[in-house]
C-alpha cells in the first residue's frame, strides 16, 4: 500500500513538471479518497496542474483543502495558488490570495505582475511595479513587466521599461532579451531589432536556442526575410520551433515554394512537425495559390501525423479554396466541418466571395457573420463590402459607423502629408493611374470617392515615409487590415516613380514592392 501511495505521488509530481494532464487531477482525487496523508508537495503539484489546464473548479477545491490542512502560511504554495488563479484568468481570486498573504517576497510580486498582465490589466501591473522599492526588484520583476506589456500590445511601454532597466544597471538575462526581441518583432521595429541583436551578441546570448528562434521570427516579421534565413543558417542547433519560425516567415512573405522546401528538409532531418508548423505550410499554400500542395499538406497532417485540425487550419483551407475561386468547394468544406466556423473563418470566406462578386454566397455568409457579432475591424470591412456588393447603402452606412474612420487628421503634419500625397497622385495620373473607386461602397459622387481613397492609411503612411527619408531609402509600413486593391496598385506605381523599395505588412502577409512590381504577384 505504501508503495502505491508513493507511486501516485510520483506520478502526480511528474505530470506537474512535464506535460500537464487532467489525469493527474483524477489521480489526486484517488489519493485523497484513499485516506492517505496529503502533503504540501502534493497540493503544490496539483495546483500547478490546475493552472496549466485551466481547471478553475478543481483549483478552488484544492484551495479549500489547502486551507483545511493549514498550509495557508506556506509562501511557495500560496504563490503557486496565486499563479493558478491568474492562469485561469480569475484575477479577482488571485488578488484576494495576494492581499491575504501576511508576507510577500519578490517572487510573489513577480507572479502578481505576470498575472495582472495575463488578465489584460497592464496599468495595474505597472502600478504594482512602481510601488516596489528599486532595491527590491530583481531581473524577474523587470522580465515579468516587459514580457507582460509586450503580450498586451504595449510594446512601446515595454521598450521604455527595458531602457530604464539598463539605466538602473540591472543585468539582463536570456528571458529579458527574448521578451524584447518579441516586442521588436510585433512592432516591426527594424532599427530597434538590430540594436537588440547587437546587445545579445555583446551579452553572449546569441547561441542560445530560444534566442536564435526569436531572431528568425523577429527578422521575418520586420520584413527582412534574408536576415531571417541567415540567422536560421547560423544556428548550431535547430528544433521544431526553429523550422516552424522559418516556414511561417516564408508563408507571411508569400514564398510558398520556399516554405514547402523548408518543410520537406525539416522532415528529412528527422524533426517532427507540430500543428503550428502545418499552420505555416497551409498559410504558405493559401497565399501562393498552391491548391494541390495545400490539400496534400492538410491530409499529411491528419493521416501521417495524426494531428486534429483546429479552427485555424480549417480557416487556411477555406481561404486556400476561396482565393483559387473554388467558392462552392469552400462552402461545402465549411458545411462538412466537425466544428462551427468562427468569425475569422467566415470573414476570410466573405472577403473572397466579395472579391469574386458571388452575391449568393456573400449574402449567406454575411448573415452568418453578423450573427456572431465579430470583434475584428476586418470583419466589418468585409461586411461593408458585402452590403456594397448587393447595393444596400443603408447597410454600408450602419457598418461604417461601427468601425474607425479613415482619413485621420490627428498627425501634427497632416496638411503637409496630404499635400505631398496629392502631388504623388498627380504624378501617377500623368502616367495613366485611375483610382479604383469600385472599392468605395458609399453612394457618393466620383470625386468624393477619390477623396475617400486618398485618406486610406497606407497611402498616408507612404507619403509620410517618402517625405521623411532620403531618396532611395527602403521603408516598411504596417497596418492592421488587409491592403485594398487600389492601395496595392498605388504602392506599386509609387515604388517605380520614386525609385523606392516599399515593404508593406498588412493583417494577412508581407508585400515587397520594387520597380512597380509586388512580390505577391497580385495574388493576395
Q: Care to describe what's here?
A:
The protein has 28 helices and four strands. It is mostly helical and 524 residues long. It has a four-stranded mixed beta sheet, covered by helices on one side. Strand 2 (502-505) and strand 3 (510-514) form a beta hairpin. It is globular, with a radius of gyration of 26 Å. The chain starts with a helix and ends in a 6-residue tail after the last strand. The model has no long low-confidence stretch (mean pLDDT 87).
Keywords:
single chain, 524 residues, mainly alpha, 4-stranded mixed beta sheet, 28 helices, 4 strands
- Return Rg in Å: 26 Å
Termini separation comes to 65 Å
Q: What structural category do the secondary elements indicate?
A: mainly alpha
Q: Mind describing the biggest β-sheet?
A: 4 strands, mixed
Determine the mean pLDDT.
87
Q: What is the molecular shape?
A: globular
- Number of separate helices: 28
Number of strands: 4
Helical proportion, percent range: 55-70%
Amount of beta strand = under 5%
Provide the spatial order of strands within the biggest beta sheet.
Answer: 1-2-3-4
Low-confidence stretches: none
